[in-house]
């Protein structure tokens, strides 16, 4: 269809073309040298993007060039409409990330950074913006409660500090507490908040105590002197609370003599390995799967009973992508007699996220408004698709999340077990 004369004239005015032109002996006359005038593409206000980029840690959001590789691997986008690329575009179009719900949906799983050619780093961007939102009081209510409980009680579950070692009474074996034994130990075991207070976390803690006793590990716990590691609170924007917890914990760590630390959870492992050194703590730290994998020769003879089950394993984001440990959990599972280990499609480097990271543990009601299902529900469905009978985990956040998800998705037959529980089951029958 012919264009109106007026429109044709406008287009002609924007075209620059020399009828005769030779450059360095090459004839590029006519359409070979045709150029078009600048097109106006800046039809948005860049201020909100600049506001993020001017923060320390927020700079890389400006580096995005829209390739959308992050969208393909973002766990939230699979159940919603989300990714760093989409956040970048929204801020270009005027969305204020500091007050947007999008600020709280990122679980800091790190899968986007794994594939991003421009290294747009949401692990730095989100905490930086969230910190400003926290200072301004723009925090979802359920997350704010977790902050307040942590500040008041030393843990996000709001449980009394004096009860932190109450779980040891029914462990079936003595659990040495550093303040009581008053001697140096080889291993300082940092138990963590959920293994100390949550019923399903306590199951894993007691299993760990029995395993350590059977192996003859010389260890002790801090008990009431232990506080939450604070890493998830830091990632959710409460930097000041994190620093307060870290200072208290470091003081407790330094008040006793020990050779290495073993932690129950990946988030503690990440905190003590990567964040606490910035505050002066720099000691050897292992996740329990790494520690036990080193003791497989002593552990194998203790695993006398078969656990006949088809088992699949969920890689925790903060043990896998954040810290590169994929093999130790699998080595433990493969050592258990009777276990048939099957891998889900999303595993290892491309493992799916349970939704609990970056403060997501305390934002389920909030994120439900923006997703078709919880990330934990999508993961449970994947485990069921692979006909797993047991979903094995090694993060204290995950047992309760996946058990709830199994019920809500109608996959009640799928059992969720910490690797510690499976090892203990094989030991005791």
Question: What Rg is obtained from the alpha carbons, in whole angstroms?
Answer: 26 Å
- Helix fraction, binned, reads 40-55%
Q: Please count the beta strands (DSSP E, at least 2 residues each).
A: 12
What is the second-level CATH architecture of the largest domain?
3-Layer(aba) Sandwich
Low-confidence stretches: none
Structural domain tally: 4
Spatial strand sequence of the major β-sheet? 6-5-7-8
Main beta sheet: 4 strands, parallel
Characterization of the model:
There is one protein chain. This protein has 429 residues and is α/β, with parallel strands linked by helices. It folds into four domains: 5-36, no CATH class; 47-135, no CATH class; 172-294, Rossmann fold, CATH 3.40.50; 300-428, Rossmann fold, CATH 3.40.50. It is built from 21 helices and twelve strands. The protein has helices at residues 5-14, 47-53, 69-73, 75-79, 84-92, 111-115, 122-135, 141-153, 178-181, 193-197, 199-215, 231-235, 239-254, 266-275, 288-294, 296-299, 327-335, 364-367, 375-385, 396-408, 419-428; strands spanning 15-16, 22-23, 26-27, 35-36, 185-190, 219-221, 258-263, 285-287, 309-313, 339-342, 390-393, 415-418. The strands form four sheets. Strands 6-5-7-8 form a four-stranded parallel beta sheet. It has a four-stranded parallel beta sheet with strand order 10-9-11-12, with helices on both faces. It has a two-stranded antiparallel ribbon with strand order 1-4. α19 (375-385) packs across α20 (396-408). The chain is elongated and about 90 Å long. The mean pLDDT is 94.
């Amino acid at each position: 269809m012919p264009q109106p004369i007026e429109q044709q004239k406008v287009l002609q005015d924007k075209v620059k073309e020399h009828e005769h032109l030779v450059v360095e002996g090459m004839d590029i006359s006519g359409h070979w040298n045709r150029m078009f005038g600048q097109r106006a593409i800046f039809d948005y206000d860049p201020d909100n993007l600049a506001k993020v980029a001017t923060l320390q840690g927020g700079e890389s959001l400006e580096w995005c060039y829209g390739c959308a590789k992050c969208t393909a691997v973002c766990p939230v986008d699979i159940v919603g409409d989300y990714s760093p690329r989409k956040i970048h575009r929204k801020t270009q179009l005027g969305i204020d990330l500091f007050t947007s719900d999008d600020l709280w949906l990122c679980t800091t799983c790190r899968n986007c950074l794994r594939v991003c050619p421009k290294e747009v780093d949401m692990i730095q961007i989100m905490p930086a913006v969230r910190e400003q939102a926290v200072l301004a009081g723009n925090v979802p209510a359920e997350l704010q409660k977790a902050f307040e409980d942590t500040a008041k009680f030393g843990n996000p579950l709001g449980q009394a500090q004096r009860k932190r070692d109450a779980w040891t009474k029914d462990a079936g074996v003595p659990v040495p507490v550093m303040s009581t034994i008053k001697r140096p130990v080889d291993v300082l075991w940092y138990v963590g908040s959920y293994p100390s207070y949550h019923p399903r976390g306590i199951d894993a803690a007691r299993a760990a105590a029995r395993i350590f006793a059977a192996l003859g590990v010389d260890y002790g716990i801090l008990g009431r002197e232990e506080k939450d590691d604070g890493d998830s609170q830091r990632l959710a924007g409460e930097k000041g609370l994190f620093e307060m917890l870290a200072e208290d914990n470091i003081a407790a760590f330094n008040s006793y003599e020990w050779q290495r630390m073993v932690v129950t959870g990946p988030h503690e492992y990440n905190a003590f390995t990567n964040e606490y050194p910035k505050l002066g703590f720099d000691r050897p730290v292992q996740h329990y799967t790494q520690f036990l994998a080193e003791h497989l020769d002593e552990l194998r003879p203790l695993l006398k009973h078969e656990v006949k089950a088809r088992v699949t394993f969920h890689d925790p984001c903060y043990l896998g992508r954040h810290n590169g440990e994929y093999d130790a959990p699998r080595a433990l599972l493969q050592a258990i007699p009777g276990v048939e280990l099957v891998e889900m499609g999303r595993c290892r480097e491309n493992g799916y996220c349970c939704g609990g990271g970056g403060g997501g543990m305390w934002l389920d009601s909030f994120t439900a408004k923006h997703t078709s299902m919880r990330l934990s529900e999508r993961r449970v469905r994947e485990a069921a698709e692979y006909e797993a009978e047991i979903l094995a985990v090694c993060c204290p956040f995950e047992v309760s999340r996946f058990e709830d998800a199994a019920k809500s998705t109608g996959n009640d037959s799928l059992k969720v077990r910490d690797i510690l529980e499976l090892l203990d089951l094989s030991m005791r029958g």
